[in-house]
Amino acid sequence: xxxxxxxxxxxxxxxxxxxxxxxxxxxxxxxxxxxxxxxxxxxxxxxxxxxxxxxxxxxxxxxxxxxxxxxxxxxxxxxxxxxxxxxxxxxxxxxxxxxxxxxxxxxxxxxxxxxxxxxxxxxxxxxxxxxxxxxxxxxxxxxxxxxxxxxxxxxxxxxxxxxxxxxxxxxxxxxxxxxxxxxxxxxxxxxxxxxxxxxxxxxxxxxxxxxxxxxxxxxxxxxxxxxxxxxxxxxxxxxxxxxxxxxxxxxxxxxxxxxxxxxxxxxxxxxxxxxxxxxxxxxxxx
Length: 286
Hints:
Blueprint: E1 6-11, E2 14-19, H1 30-45, E3 51-56, E4 60-62, H2 91-101, E5 106-110, E6 113-115, H3 117-120, E7 127-131, E8 135-137, H4 151-159, H5 161-170, E9 173-175, H6 176-181, E10 187-189, H7 191-208, H8 211-224, H9 230-245, H10 248-258
Parallel strand pairs: 2-3, 3-5, 4-6, 5-7, 6-8, 7-10
Antiparallel strand pairs: 1-2, 8-9
C-alpha cells in the first residue's frame, strides 16, 4: 500500500513508520489518521513484522493537529465533509485505540516536537524514547479544547495523576529531561543516537522472543492492569500459560536454552493465537 503522509519500511522484522509531512512539521490531518489506522492494520496482518518503531521526518515528530483551517480546525460540524471518521469521535482517539489493539510492540522515537495529538496518540505505545531536542505539550486548554485521543485514560496510568494534572492543566511545553523525570519517556538520546537506540531495543525483542508470546503479553499488560481484581488477571494468565506451555515455542524456548543456542520460534500471530483470544470480546471466564 502506498501512503501520502507516512513512510512504511520493514527491515528484518522491524517496521519503521515515519510521519512524513515535514513541510507541516508532520501535523496530524484526516489523511494521516486514515493512513495510520491502515498502516497498523497492515502491520498486524503481516507476520514478518515483529516490532514497530514510529518517528517523524524532518525536525519534528508531530506538531499536533494541522491548524491550516484556522478557527474551524476543531469544529467538526463546520468540517463535516472531511471529518476524521465518525462526527461523534475524535480522529486521534481512533488512532490511539487502533494502536492499543495492536499485536506488535510499538516504540515511539521522538525526534523533535510532539505536541497535542502528536504526543497523545503515542500514549498507547509501549516504550517511548526521545532526542534531547524533543519538546512535549498537552496544550489543549491553551487552544480552548479538552484532552483527546483517549489521553484522559492513558496519561494518568502512565505518569500518575499529579504529573498528568500539572501538564494538562498548565498546557505548557516542556523539554525531554522533564519528560524523562515525569515518566513519559524511557530515555533521552542525542539526535544521531535516537533511532539506533530504538532499533537496538526493537532487535532485542524481534531476535529473541516468541511472536505469539509477545502478542499475548502486550494485550495482557494493557488490559489486565485495568481490571477490578487480580483474579481476572489470574484467569487469563492461567489460560495463556496453559496454552503456551504445551506449544512448539515453549519446547523450543527450553531446548534452545539447554543447548545454549539462539531460539528458533515458529509460531505466528496470524495463525497460532489461542482460541480464547481476544478474550475481552467474549463472555467473561467463570
